[in-house]
Amino acid sequence: xxxxxxxxxxxxxxxxxxxxxxxxxxxxxxxxxxxxxxxxxxxxxxxxxxxxxxxxxxxxxxxxxxxxxxxxxxxxxxxxxxxxxxxxxxxxxxxxxxxxxxxxxxxxxxxxxxxxxxxxxxxxxxxxxxxxxxxxxxxxxxxxxxxxxxxxxxxxxxxxxxxxxxxxxxxxxxxxxxxxxxxxxxxxxxxxxxxxxxxxxxxxxxxxxxxxxxxxxxxxxxxxxxxxxxxxxxxxxxxxxxxxxxxxxxxxxxxxxxxxxxxxxxxxxxxxxxxxxxxxxxxxxxxxxxxxxxxxxxxxxxxxxxxxxxxxxxxxxxxxxxxxxxx
Amino acid sequence: xxxxxxxxxxxxxxxxxxxxxxxxxxxxxxxxxxxxxxxxxxxxxxxxxxxxxxxxxxxxxxxxxxxxxxxxxxxxxxxxxxxxxxxxxxxxxxxxxxxxxxxxxxxxxxxxxxxxxxxxxxxxxxxxxxxxxxxxxxxxxxxxxxxxxxxxxxxxxxxxxxxxxxxxxxxxxxxxxxxxxxxxxxxxxxxxxxxxxxxxxxxxxxxxxxxxxxxxxxxxxxxxxxxxxxxxxxxxxxxxxxxxxxxxxxxxxxxxxxxxxxxxxxxxxxxxxxxxxxxxxxxxxxxxxxxxxxxxxxxxxxxxxxxxxxxxxxxxxxxxxxxxxxxxxxxxxxxxxxxxxxxxxxxxxxxxxxxxxxxxxxxxxxxxxxxxxxxxxxxxxxxxxxxxxxxxxxxxxxxxxxxxxxxxxxxxxxxxxxxxxxxxxxxxxxxxxxxxxxxxxxxxxxxxxxxxxxxxxxxxxxxxxxxxxxxxxxxxxxxxxxxxxxxxxxxxxxxxxxxxxxxxxxxxxxxxxxxxxxxxxxxxxxxxxxxxxxxxxxxxxxxxxxxxxxxxxxxxxxxxxxxxxxxxxxxxxxxxxxxxxxxxxxxxxxxxxxxxxxxxxxxxxxxxxxxxxxxxxxxxxxxxxxxxxxxxxxxxxxxxxxxxxxxxxxxxxxxxxxxx
Lengths: 327, 660
What we know:
The structure holds two protein chains of two kinds. Helix content of chain A is 34%, strand content 27%.
């Protein structure tokens, strides 16, 4: 319970600090990459262990003074000075570190985005760096004059552009007495695909160009219709269904003998927009896994027909960024 | 975060190294038990890492506390405290599983390390503990995740720890010099419990000095004002023992009376300065025979010098003594009675021998000579004498005939008393090694010695050393020469090397160990501050620390700056930063001219507005009219920015109504 309470107090203090001292927390502005950490970015505070260690040193000092014991006092001074020097060593761990770029292979919403940050260092090696955002954290080391990457997993809950926001780069190297940290707020956006619908029904199977239908479930029949577009041949128009819907609907006709599948946003009419996106995503993924050729019909664009991972990416990207609201 | 095996073992190694200096002083079974438990845990963790149940840990701590109380009677004080700390440190290893615990252990190890210095303050011990400190920092370093060289955590850690210690050394020395020392302790009387330190004691029984005679740590260092007395004259008197109970010589009563003005010097007094290693006992060893009480000490009528309280830190004392002397008083009856008393029913054969000597000889001198000749005839000097029975003097005189100083002095005094000559045992040191280069005499614990004094009517107390009759080289050439055959001391060259190295030890004792409040006060005398008080010292300390930290900060900060763009960009950023501090925040993506327009709007002062306009136009001209602006013009622009004084921003309507 107490940890929860202190956690929330901490959050509140941080929020207050960010409101009142934006320059200190550097929350406000996203910066263009690359960012090089320097003294205006780097903050230092003792850790809890550092504070305890300070108390210990004070006790040792008092004991040595009380017993008039100079060697013990010398030992205490040597230890204290080394502890203090570790602050400077810690500062040098971060100073001059450059964040070159940030990237992540897209994931589906609800999964964790594996965000990879690429760092470069000058002629000083940097051990024991930590990169974190929220609770996710990763430790990494960079040898001198190299660039290296650190990958941290960030849960991505919604499709579209994901902004990692503020990242904390920190270290308590070398002794764990002082924590040296820097906030980086890179101006980047990472793509998150829509979530895949669990247990999605199979896509409707239509015949080829000639309209001969391949038998499919009752649901699939309706799902195989789309809005009439100028240029559709009259025999593709589903007259009965059009009469019921008070507008012209065309039968889906892309599943030819060449195994082209068409996934149509409009054909999923009873579902809301997000559910359609999820189902279409599931179908795209399944079609690609099966090695099929498919076409994606969205309200504002048609992608394909094509196949392969580039096509899959194009489709998923379009789905991720689709802003079309359901009718 | 869980510790890896390597991390855990490095932490355990550090804890062992911190406890090690305490082990010889702890009760044997206690030391074995705590080390055994810790080693057991280290071994078990290799097979199966995981926390140990509280059902085991809590009772272990309870047993530890119980053991310390049983052993010492209390938990507080230097001895029980350090035993408890060592035990807790070992037990903490049992529950250590995470980085947090490991850090706690290492911090506590530092404390245990320091407490070892409460018992010994030699240079070697301090250097050894500083080496353990490097190990401790290495272990802390090894707790960091993602090391550069995961295969060699110890090497990387030692390099880092050594570097930190080295870089911190100037800071450490400065703080050591200027941290104000306490004039009087805040709590407790330091030292005085007499545990664990060797030294001359006020009891002497057969074999009692053996421990001392094999301890070659320094006891005294003496610097004579004039030439040092001859080796045969180098007797340092610590305690006079009067009372014999058949086995043990003691000093039942202190002699409270100050020494009367009774000493007649037959040679000029020798002045000297003597530095005594801590003994935790009040006795002060001085050259035989002290003329008067040195400062802060007391001199009793039997010429024993005692300090006020035990010597828990090295003490330097000025004294003067005469080596040839005569007493011009008569022995008081009380003292005579005490100097002739012998226990009833002990050593019948020795008493018989004394009566025979007395009957055969004419006068006290002849009795003494006869007794010494008896020793000289068939006795042997050895540091490993055969054990003696109830009649220890009889056994020694007639059966074993082998022993060292305490046997000889004890037997001789018994013989003298039985022959009616007042006699007493004196213990102290004899000999020493003259360090010619540095001009001081080093006396080791192994130079401990016991001799006798007899009362002769016309001369008073006279020193008689029966050991000299048996082993003259013990007196002339020192303990090492006399004991060469017994092999206690290792090879000779080793001792010789150590004798020469003692200069370093002495320097250490004099400059570091004895650096007290008094000497600290005169630290600032060269700078015109006499008798620096705590305030002065703290001010100097703060100043020195500020300088060190300033230099260190400058050193790490140099080069740590915003390096985007060229010098012109840097100067422009500087202008924007300063303007922002005065309330003229630049907006994202705002060009210099738009920014200037807002700046002009926010500045009331006509002159300042003109300057700002000039500077910004200068920037625009440099930035956009050149591919690479000439460096001297950039420098001029940077100077302009530095010299620019911006007034605080005012809102537009206030500007309209303000008068300036």
